[in-house]
Each structure stands twice: as structure tokens, then as C-alpha cells.
Amino acid sequence: MVRRELLVWALILAVVAGGTPARSADALEIPLSIENHRFTPEEITVTAGTSFVLIITNKDATPEEFESHDLRIEKVIPAGKVIRLRMPALKKGSYNFIGDFNQSTAKGRIIAE
What we know:
Layout (H helix, E strand, L loop, with lengths): L1 H18 L8 E8 L2 E3 L2 E4 L5 E7 L5 E5 L4 E5 L4 E6 L5 E7 L7 E6 L1
Parallel strand pairs: 1-4, 3-9
Antiparallel strand pairs: 1-2, 4-7, 5-6, 5-8, 8-9
């Protein structure tokens, strides 16, 4: 019976000491706002190979669509709302995005270095 108890305690200790998968660090959150039909900031620099989250706040009274052909992303942000847009780890390079509803003013890019 003692041997069985020792085995149970050994298993419990193994799980508590690190038998569970490590939790990865939370993804970097980057604020991006839409105001007067423009993105601020217009240029975002991130570390290549690392995923991140864009926190997009639409301060305008009308909806806007975050669109990037380079990243194959289209997401409508309702007026006065905030969305969290999980972005994949990017290869080194430059990735353009626009506000599809105001293409002449709402422009930006993400640079992965």
C-alpha cells in the first residue's frame, strides 16, 4: 500500500512541478484608431515572426472596414466601437492596409522587421 501512495504522490508532484504545457506569453497589443477617416498611427512596426493583436478603435460616427489585400483581411468596425484583431506572425516586409469605405484618406501599413 505504501508503494502505491508513493506512486500517486510522485504523479501529483510531476503534474504540479511542470507536467502541464507552459502557457505562452500574451500577444503584444497595438492600438490603432480611426478618426476623421484616417488611421492613427499610419505606420506600425512589429517584430517579424511574432503574432500580435491590433486593438482598433473607430472614433468616427460611421463604420469603417479595415482591409489588407497583402494580409487577406477584411473586418468592419462599427461606429464608436472597438475590436480586437489577432494578427498572424508576419515575415519581414511591408503590409499595406486601407479603410475600404474611405480609401482616399484611410491608409496605413504594418512593417515587420
